[in-house]
């Protein structure tokens, strides 16, 4: 009788809500097609067989970008590339034209030496720029996916699915909407080279930055020296007079700046080009030097700019940080790698000895 009463009695609200949720959650792995069963709901899950990561809420294919968006990105890239190429040509041609009379006036050897240095720097910068710009940033290799017998155990370890390309996306790869492809080890999309910076062209991109920093430092030094040589003679009448001691320091500086700026009106076209190149190369040098330091810092940490952005602040690094990352990045010859590794291990052994002696 008690059993029958319990069956007829309506269930409390909480009990009803619990019974309405299924005990198991099912999903299909996009990598191998296996049906996965979970005890609780999770928006992200990893297949125990192939290792592919599935995001249940964003697994459907995305709409392609509009034509206007694609045109705008292409136009922006071409504009940046055109401005940079014109600037490089101006610095090379304008710099040689403006500086060479001054260096040849010192001596013939001096002139030939500086022409050779300028040619080497120009070739290095232009070549590394062309390689970074034209080389494919790093397309993922085509792999077979979507069927259990074909995909082996662990074949898609930590792969995700790119809903733009409808293809597997390797770990540390990102989809670039400007290049319309996934890029392995993508650092960022650089509009100045009109290309992504990824696994295949990251090294040449950093070489380009180093080349720009050295070239701009050289151009700044040479143009400042040449400007000094051809600048019209300047006289400071007020400073030379007896009222000099009564003038405040800021008034003295202002007087000097005004006199120097006034004398610039008497500069020839060559002199104006020199002044412009000195300012422009110093400014570009400062900006690129900051970018280069940032890039070297990420390489040292074994990370990329995009991974750093996408990972949580306290997340583990993708690789071990250290000097060996920079050696590996530049593909240094074997003896250099050995020296770095030996230094690293000797430091680690020293630290271990120190901690061991402290414990004792
Ligand atoms: Zn799977
Ligand atoms: Zn993609
Ligand atoms: Zn890109």
Automatic annotation (TrEMBL):
The protein's matches in PROSITE patterns, at most eight in alphabetical order, are given as: DHHC (PS50216)
Protein name per UniProt: S-acyltransferase
Per its record, the protein catalyses:
L-cysteinyl-[protein] + hexadecanoyl-CoA = S-hexadecanoyl-L-cysteinyl-[protein] + CoA
Instruction: Please name the top-level EC class of this enzyme.
Output: transferase
State the organism named in the record. Answer: Zea mays (Maize)
Localization, per the record, is:
Membrane
- The EC designation for this entry is 2.3.1.225
Superkingdom per UniProt = Eukaryota
The Swiss-Prot or TrEMBL record annotates one GO molecular function as: protein-cysteine S-palmitoyltransferase activity
Looking at the UniProt entry, the stretches that span the membrane are: 79-99, 111-134, 204-228, 274-292
Any one GO CC term of this protein is: membrane
Q: Which UniProt keywords apply?
A: Acyltransferase, Membrane, Transferase, Transmembrane, Transmembrane helix
Could you tell me the membrane topology recorded for this protein? Multi-pass membrane protein
Describe the family membership recorded for this protein in Swiss-Prot or TrEMBL: Belongs to the DHHC palmitoyltransferase family.
Task: Tell what the record comments on domains.
Answer: The DHHC domain is required for palmitoyltransferase activity.
One matching Pfam family is DHHC
InterPro entries, alphabetized = Palmitoyltrfase_DHHC (IPR001594), PFA4/ZDH16/20/ERF2-like (IPR039859)
* UniProt domain Palmitoyltransferase DHHC: residue ranges: 158-308
């Amino acid at each position: 009788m008690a059993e029958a009463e319990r069956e007829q009695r309506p269930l409390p609200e909480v009990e009803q809500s619990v019974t309405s949720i299924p005990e198991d959650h099912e999903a299909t792995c996009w990598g191998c097609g296996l049906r996965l069963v979970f005890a609780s709901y999770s928006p992200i899950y990893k297949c125990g067989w192939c290792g592919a990561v599935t995001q249940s809420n964003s697994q459907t294919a995305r709409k392609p970008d509009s034509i206007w968006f694609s045109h705008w990105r292409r136009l922006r890239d071409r504009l940046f590339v055109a401005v940079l190429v014109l600037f490089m040509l101006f610095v090379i041609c304008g710099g040689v034209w403006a500086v060479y009379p001054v260096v040849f006036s010192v001596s013939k050897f001096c002139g030939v030496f500086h022409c050779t240095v300028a040619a080497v720097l120009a070739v290095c910068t232009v070549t590394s720029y062309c390689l970074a710009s034209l080389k494919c940033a790093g397309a993922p290799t085509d792999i077979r996916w979507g069927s259990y017998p074909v995909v082996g155990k662990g074949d898609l370890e930590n792969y995700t699915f790119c809903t733009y390309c409808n293809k597997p996306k390797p770990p540390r790869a990102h989809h670039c909407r400007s290049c319309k492809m996934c890029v392995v080890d993508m650092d960022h999309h650089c509009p100045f080279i009109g290309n992504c910076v990824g696994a295949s062209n990251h090294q040449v991109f950093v070489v380009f930055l180093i080349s720009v920093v050295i070239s701009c430092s050289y151009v700044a030094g040479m143009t400042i020296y040449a400007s000094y040589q051809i600048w019209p003679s300047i006289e400071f009448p007020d400073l030379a007079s007896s009222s000099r001691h009564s003038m405040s320091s800021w008034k003295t500086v202002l007087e000097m700046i005004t006199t120097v700026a006034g004398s610039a009106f008497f500069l020839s076209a060559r002199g104006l080009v020199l002044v412009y190149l000195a300012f422009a190369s110093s400014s570009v040098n400062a900006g690129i030097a900051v970018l280069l330091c940032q890039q070297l810092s990420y390489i040292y940490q074994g990370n990329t700019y995009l991974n750093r952005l996408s990972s949580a602040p306290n997340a583990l690094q993708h690789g071990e940080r250290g000097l060996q990352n920079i050696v590996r990045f530049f593909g240094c010859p074997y003896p250099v790698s050995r020296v770095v590794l030996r230094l690293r291990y000797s430091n680690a052994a020293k630290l271990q000895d120190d901690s061991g002696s402290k414990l004792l």
